[in-house]
């Protein structure tokens, strides 16, 4: 029978699971991160892990989402500073480009390659992935609502375009030395259609 934990203990265990999962993910990637390694680091029985998460992938995904939300908050601050003024396509491109460059520097996202992201997405329940994509679309809609964008902009298309740009960042090595300029050009192409 599983041990019952107080709310304080549950919060602490959940926090520790996320901390260790983030470290394992940055060190080993999705494939080589194991529940056994995470619970060993947190010093809890393996069965306790499953009181908190149904799978390793759901924990890893939550860790990645929290880091993405942190960057989104910074981008919101920058964009809210741009709103109220006549924002140019160049200024908005610079802000979004900086967002992608920040994301690239996150230890977890630096280590995760294309195969790792695809593996994680395949192993997550479909409704979790769909909810994440919808949340991204909603976030983009909220940001665009702060800016003087064209009235006929389809938020779903814009969201899909920015997801495509994210997938390009996973191929930085293959793109080579023109990567930064190509990334900025892709972002500018989207932004120019918005303003």
What can you see in these coordinates?
This protein is mainly alpha-helical. The chain has helices at 7-32, 35-42, 46-52, 56-82, 89-105, 107-111, 114-123, 126-145, 155-169, 172-175, 179-194. It has a single domain, classed as Tetracycline Repressor, domain 2. The protein is built from eleven helices and no strands. Helix 1 crosses helix 4 and helix 5 packs across helix 11. The N and C termini lie far apart (59 Å). The relative contact order is 0.11.
Concise account of the structure shown:
The chain has helices spanning 7-32, 35-42, 46-52, 56-82, 89-105, 107-111, 114-123, 126-145, 155-169, 172-175, 179-194. With 195 residues, the chain is mainly alpha-helical. It has one domain: Tetracycline Repressor, domain 2 (Orthogonal Bundle).
Number of domains: 1
Structural class by secondary-structure content: mainly alpha
Number of E-type strands: 0
Q: How would you describe the shape?
A: elongated
Q: Number of helical segments?
A: 11
N- to C-terminal distance = 59 Å
β-sheet strand percentage: under 5%
Radius of gyration: 19 Å
Which CATH class? Mainly Alpha
Oligomer: single chain
Q: SSE order, as H and E? A: HHHHHHHHHHH
């Amino acid at each position: 029978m599983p041990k019952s934990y107080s709310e304080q203990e549950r919060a602490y265990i959940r926090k520790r699971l996320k901390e260790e999962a983030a470290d394992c993910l940055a060190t080993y990637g999705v494939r080589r991160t194991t529940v056994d390694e995470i619970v060993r680091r947190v010093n809890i029985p393996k069965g306790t892990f499953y009181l908190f998460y149904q799978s390793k992938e759901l924990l890893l995904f939550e860790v990645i989402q929290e880091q993405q939300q942190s960057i989104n908050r910074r981008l919101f601050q920058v964009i809210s500073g741009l709103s109220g003024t006549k924002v140019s396509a160049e200024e908005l491109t610079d802000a979004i480009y900086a967002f992608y460059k920040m994301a690239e520097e996150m230890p977890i996202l630096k280590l995760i390659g294309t195969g790792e992201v695809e593996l994680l997405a395949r192993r997550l329940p479909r409704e979790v992935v769909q909810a994440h994509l919808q949340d991204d679309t909603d976030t983009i809609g909220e940001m665009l609502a702060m800016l003087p964008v064209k009235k006929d902009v389809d938020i779903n298309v814009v969201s899909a375009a920015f997801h495509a740009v994210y997938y390009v960042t996973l191929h930085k090595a293959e793109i080579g030395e023109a990567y930064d300029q190509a990334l900025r050009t892709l972002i500018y192409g989207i932004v120019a259609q918005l303003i």
